[in-house]
Each structure stands twice: as C-alpha cells, then as structure tokens.
Here is the input.
Amino acid sequence: MPEETRYVTLSGNVPNGGVPPGRMAASIVRLPSAPNPGHYTFNPGPFSGAYGPPPPYHAQQHTGPYYPTLHPGPPPPGPPAPAPAACGSNGSSYEPPGQYLDGHLLHGDGWSYITPSENTTIHFLGDGTRPCDAPNGYYPHQFKFTKHKVPTLMTLGDLIKRLGAPAGDRNGISEMEELGDARFTVGLTIMQGSDDAKKTLAEIGWTQRKSEAAPIWILVKRPPM
Here is the structure.
C-alpha cells in the first residue's frame, strides 16, 4: 500500500485552500459574472441598475425621425417640384418666347403680353422741362426723365396719346437732339392730326439701332401760352 502524504501549513491549515495542484481557484470559487459584451439593457432616462455610464448621464433623446446610424443624415431629397405655371398659361407647359422683353416677363393677372419683335427705347421728359429752349441750347443742369420701350410699328399719333399729350391738333411731341457739352437742340416735331402722325416710329428713324447708338429724347410739344 503506497504511503499517503499530506501537507499542512505552519498555521495548521490545508495548503492552497484545499485546491488540488494544477487547478484554477476560479473554478472552485464563483466570481461575479460580467455582462455579455454583445447585449445591452435599454433604459430610457438615467441609467439606474443597468449597465452603462453612471448618473447623471441621460441617453440621447431624438425628437425627429430616426435614421440608421449606418446611413447618417436625412434621406436624399425627392424629385424637385414642378415650376409654377407662368401667368396666363393656365397650367400649360408651353411658354411663347414673345412674352419676354429683354428677359422680363410682361404679364398681369392671368395673362402675359406678346411683344413685337422690334422695340426702341425713348427717354421721355414728361414734366415740361425743355433743355433745348435754354439760351444757345446750353443747359448745365440736371433734369428728370423716364425710359420706355416702345414698339417701332406704333404710329406717332398713338405714341403722342400714350405719352399723355393734351388733346388737340396743336399738341404733339418733339425730339430733342443732344449736341454734347450740355447743349441741346430741337429736332423733329410731330403734331396730332398731321400726316407725320400716321407714320410709325420705324418710318421716321426712331429704331432700336438708333436708340442703342444714342438716347432718343422726347418732349411733349404744347402751343405757347
């Protein structure tokens, strides 16, 4: 019969707590288990008892729509909304190019204006100022005027009326020619009821090309008081 050997410490206790040599103490003594790193406990509000940061940390709250973290941000925008229909189009997708004058749409409430292809620009002195009547035509002062686009196929008689000249054959409009150095002179004068009033602006030379080369100054012609 083999001889049995027993070991005791100097204090009289069993060595190594009675654990046989070669075995881990953890296999005998049950240690507190840690949470599985692949699982979490959701707790809205402060963490209390669950695994997570200590108080007073609060979980992030989302007030808008939730998007997966793999694709942050809102979803891509949808197709653009159709452009609003032009005035007068009644929903039609076709817009005639003639309703634009120098890139500007001429329109009102539910309609657009088809402009003639040829237009000139006039500089109108409508307040009665006549720099050309100054002594020697020298007028070194500022004066007010307005600019207008006018179809060159418009008659001069119609233009006289549209500029607001008083009724009567003795009223009309005059062209004021610019000589330079603040000097002006009276050019062509057209009276209502005259033969020239039946002509168009193009026929007397008030064309788009002329207005691009130099201003066409227009005055209201009234009889002397």
Summary: The CA atoms of residues 9 and 94 lie 106 Å apart. The radius of gyration is 48 Å.
